[in-house]
Amino acid sequence: MYFMLIKKLRRHRHLLDLARADSGSIHFYLEPIILNELVTEIGGMAQQYNNRTINIETGAEKVIIKADINRLKQVLLNLIDNGVKYSEKEITIKVEKIKETAIIQVSDRGSGIPLAQQNRIFERFYRLDEAKCRNTGGTGLGLSIVKTLVEGMGGKISLRSQLGEGSSFIISFPVYCENLLC
């Protein structure tokens, strides 16, 4: 009963977020965030909750971006949740800095997404497999919300997937440089 209520609340929150985004009234409270620390925290929480191996690769170099911490947590938890739903194996979350770009990559080793369907994956209400979605409770809103939130915070998201090998969602943000020292 409790988990059904949580799923219902999440679905309502997704619809509310999309309505706010459509009307231009979604607000972001951007602040400097150390991605290494956030990803370690979220990955640890998700591992406890899902009882699934989540590999976290953050490297030694601090990677700082400017984003809304609560919205970024929502994005990461949604991507991890998808990995748990659609993959039997471990999930990897990787943080790296390439020049002036911060990269967060959430990867699973599931069945992958067919190439013909990859360009639609971020559309509202789009679901790959209706039968599987009935079992997992998917609404087809999660990835649309993820994209809306990432872009609203000034980032970009893309997908790299191969059948039989899994999927990687790649989020990129400009690196935040305090006092122009990066």
Automatic annotation (TrEMBL):
<keyword id="KW-0418">Kinase</keyword>
<dbReference type="GO" id="GO:0004673">
    <property type="term" value="F:protein histidine kinase activity"/>
</dbReference>
<feature type="domain" description="Histidine kinase">
    <location>
        <begin position="1"/>
        <end position="177"/>
    </location>
</feature>
<keyword id="KW-0808">Transferase</keyword>
<dbReference type="Pfam" id="PF02518">
    <property type="entry name" value="HATPase_c"/>
</dbReference>
<dbReference type="InterPro" id="IPR036890">
    <property type="entry name" value="HATPase_C_sf"/>
</dbReference>
<dbReference type="GO" id="GO:0000160">
    <property type="term" value="P:phosphorelay signal transduction system"/>
</dbReference>
<dbReference type="InterPro" id="IPR005467">
    <property type="entry name" value="His_kinase_dom"/>
</dbReference>
<keyword id="KW-0902">Two-component regulatory system</keyword>
<protein>
    <recommendedName>
        <fullName>histidine kinase</fullName>
        <ecNumber>2.7.13.3</ecNumber>
    </recommendedName>
</protein>
<dbReference type="InterPro" id="IPR004358">
    <property type="entry name" value="Sig_transdc_His_kin-like_C"/>
</dbReference>
<keyword id="KW-0597">Phosphoprotein</keyword>
<dbReference type="InterPro" id="IPR003594">
    <property type="entry name" value="HATPase_dom"/>
</dbReference>
<dbReference type="InterPro" id="IPR050736">
    <property type="entry name" value="Sensor_HK_Regulatory"/>
</dbReference>
